[in-house]
Design goal:
By secondary structure, the chain is an alpha/beta fold. The protein has twelve helices and eight strands. The model has no long low-confidence stretch (mean pLDDT 94).
């Protein structure tokens, strides 16, 4: 299967890194291009042994899947540049936050199979959580292709396109929220006397253990939290501080703002056109 990446930024690299390691994508033929940063393309080629080129005819010929991974502000020019090469048996997949299927379809000027995906950078270790939406021109076979690509780098959930802003705010940006929490835990540990290196294994194993408890026990996070929050105990004291600082409300506001900003980006880039 020939897969083309238009764009070679961090999301493209995460997907490429995950795909080349995926057992069910052993026969994948990856091609990558970008607008003008050849040094970046060469780095991607050297790291992952993929094909690179600025010859759109060569890149697009025989491609089954074309992944739009450029910056949203560059999408219009990129879509116009490939318009004459795209065929109706090729699947266009956008991983661009905000930009709609309708916008992409209009720039290509005719009806083609288009999907929107919102993975996250954990795709690089096959641990992404990806939301996937399709237009009506995507065939069952092409849906299968999209599922095979993104299931190779994590879990996939098919959603209505209207819900992808929420997926963006929740899981697309989600790893950064977790890293933010880890930063705070590390800083607290250092301030209290551990070195960062000493604190790291405690924090990482705690996160892994909590994640597995949520996955394997099928119990709610509220139940699991209350089970270890003994009256008068250390956990209760810590939770009391989180509540004093409105941490739960802050996280809810964080996800809401990221979701709404995805919609604002769509308005910004699509109206700018």
């Amino acid at each position: 299967m020939k897969v083309v990446f238009l764009g070679a930024g961090s999301m493209a690299e995460s997907l490429i890194q995950g795909m080349i390691q995926a057992p069910n994508l052993k026969d994948i033929n990856l091609w990558v291009t970008n607008r003008s940063d050849f040094a970046r393309l060469q780095k991607i080629k050297d790291l992952y042994r993929v094909n690179i080129s600025y010859d759109l005819g060569e890149i697009m010929k025989g491609a089954e899947v074309i992944i739009l991974a450029m910056k949203p502000k560059d999408a219009k020019a990129a879509l116009e540049s490939i318009r004459s090469y795209v065929t109706q048996d090729q699947l266009i997949i956008s991983v661009l936050a905000g930009l709609s299927i309708e916008f992409i379809s209009e720039r290509l000027t005719y009806s083609v199979p288009i999907a929107r995906a919102m993975p996250n950078t954990s795709a690089s270790i096959q641990q992404s959580a990806t939301g996937l939406a399709f237009n009506t021109h995507v065939s069952p076979r092409q849906q299968g292709l999209a599922m095979s690509v993104f299931s190779a780098v994590g879990t996939v959930t098919i959603v209505e396109e209207s819900r992808l802003d929420l997926v963006t705010g929740l899981s697309g940006s989600g790893p950064a929220y977790i890293y933010y929490v880890v930063e705070a835990m590390e800083q607290a540990a250092v301030e209290l006397g551990l070195t960062q290196e000493e604190a790291k294994p405690f924090i990482l194993q705690t996160l892994q253990g909590a994640s597995k408890m949520l996955t394997m026990t099928n119990q709610s996070p509220s139940h699991l939290r209350k089970a270890i929050t003994s009256e008068g105990g250390t956990t209760e004291a810590g939770i009391r501080e989180l509540e004093k600082h409105h941490v739960k409300e802050a996280f809810k506001a964080c996800i809401k703002e990221a979701t709404e900003h995805s919609g604002r980006l769509r308005t910004l880039f699509e109206q700018a056109d």
